[in-house]
## 1
Amino acid sequence: MPKINASTVAEHRARQREALIGAAIDLLVHEGAAAVTPAAVGARAGLARSSVYQYFDSSAALLATITEEAFRRSNEALAAAMAAASGPVERVEAFFRESLRLGAEGAHRPAAALMGAGLPPACQERLMELHLEQVEPFRAAVREIGVPDPALTADLIAGMLHTALAAVERGAPPGTVTDRTLDLVRRCLSPSGGTAHDGRETG
């Protein structure tokens, strides 16, 4: 029987599963979806392939789990950041600020890798559902602000977020990118084209 490095069997199994998920994500990000196999994941996690099958019975099961995990942790962080914000503009800013912080940590890489991985249709559909769930609080805040054509406005400023994430990925200073992005977002959310907080025109 394998050595149990935890106070209970349940905790031991939870730790092993977490290690396998971490190994699978690492393989996905660095080597692509085809590399995510039970044997490779077990080797990366330091576990026998037979141990992997106690948790995941196929590559498809591993990818399905990664699909969920790629969003769960980020969603929890985004929800906490937005919950601490006092109004809709502040919630949008919190969403952007936290998204860029997570991006600087590389948290978006699993989802990005999955989107380009040619997943089975069911996984692709679930991935899109999770993405829509992630951005809905941001889109709801934009609607609450009352800007013209809120759906289009949300799409446009989401495009700025993607560009900002790409800049961080290329090595741009996260703080600088965040400050500049939020300045532009505030302008987009202001009916007058000034700051979203007081509506004054900026020169």
Note: DSSP finds nine helices and no strands in the chain.
## 2
Amino acid sequence: MVATWLIVGLGNPGPRYAATRHNVGQLVVDELAGRRGEQFREHKAGARVVETWLRPGGEKLVLAKLNSFMNVSGAPVAALARFYSVEPDHLVVIHDELDIPFDSIRLKIGGGHGGHNGVRDIARALGTPEFLRVRAGIGRPPGRQDPAAWVLAAFGSAEQQTLPIFLSDVADAVEQLVDEGLLAAQQHHHSRG
């Protein structure tokens, strides 16, 4: 039987937040769906999903963007995991990470939430932090700028120049994680930045 992987891109709903740093996870699942020519559709779990494949005959992927705000990501993720019978070791959460420089990628399983409220809420709802995370670096704000304002702002003009390549790289990391495992994906993508 082919394994099913639930790939969740975190972010906030609506056009106001669509192009912000906090929504980098959703931008990555858009990239993954676009590579496969797929469109998102509404799901009763409070999310928009694409059911697709890593490649023909490969692993099944459920790409998801939540309809809820970042801080209450847990309930819809848990509902999707139940619906698709996905265990935490086949759940990949893609999210922004302040403590990693922009254009850098880090992958891990489990551990703390690092102050990320979306990750915290998912761990609470699942009853375990032992799910996979693909952390897309957005860097810390310059000077004394409030981190909350930074994550909810659009990418700067210099960042926007490299953003398409960055999103493609993060999508590659997700595909490699599913295809070859965490260690191989870490070795490849951690060496980049």
Note: The domain at 4-190 is CATH 3.40.50.1470 (Rossmann fold).
